[in-house]
Amino acid sequence: MDSAVIQKLKCPIAFELTIPEDKLEEQKEASEDCLFSEFYEAFNIPGVEYNIKLFPNHYVHAGESWFEFSILLSNPIKIDANIKIEIKSANYISEKNFVVFEDDYADCEKLCTTEELFDPEKPLWKQETKDFVMAAEGKEIDVHKWVLALRSPVFARMFESGMKEAEENKVIITDFSFIVVEKAIKLCYHPSLVSHSTLEEKMKLLQFFNKYDIHPLKDNLETYLITVLNELTVCRLTKAALLSNAIKLETKCTEFLKDAIKTKPIFDFDILDKDFALNLFKGTFCHMSEAKID
């Protein structure tokens, strides 16, 4: 009997939607227009995009603020989704599970009254439900534990172990700059933002992802770095690959160096690990041949 293997992919999503005050005021009167986020791709599920919309004064439900969560599908796929939305200042919690088959999906929910949304004593959009702090260089960034736990087995074990960090809901990072930590956390939410980092930041991010075993972000970043290999970047990328145990990137860098070292000037060669450089030269210029008998 043939048996099919069904693979269930998990993809965490989270939104932080910044709304300029003037844009919010424009929607105070009932209107079919709305405030909405960009569509984001589910990083590990091809053909799936999602966004959210806010209707401050709904065109059907006048005097009420509603939000909408949408999923767009370009390929037939079954999605079993769990959504939790919590705004403490509005005493609002919504949790639901739904299944999407092939067609696009939109879920609309009442958030609060329009009056409550615009009440200065109830700053709905300033509330955070993030429950963990990551600190570096004296600065802090808030994050959801469930996002870190889903991305990283290292953090998942930390939260379950009763360690000091788990009890205090805070971890201090000493070997990475705040900029790198901040970008790494943002990438945990939106992997598509990787293109906005500099090459040096990308290499540091690769090291961060490796240390905390964050996949598939490490794999995606490693694949991207392979595409920017040239004689100007190869030695820096090689160093990053060695520090990050990025095997694919190290292999591609080694292949590039062996091909280029005879014909092109290679920049920053002196930053390479000495043992790595020695083995590289041996592999490039020292030909091995087995003796033959006539």
Automatic annotation (TrEMBL):
InterPro entries: BTB/POZ_dom, SKP1/BTB/POZ_sf. SMART domains: BTB. Pfam families: BTB (PF00651). Residues 130-197 form the BTB domain. It comes from the Eukaryota. Transmembrane segments: none annotated. This is BTB domain-containing protein. It comes from Panagrolaimus davidi.
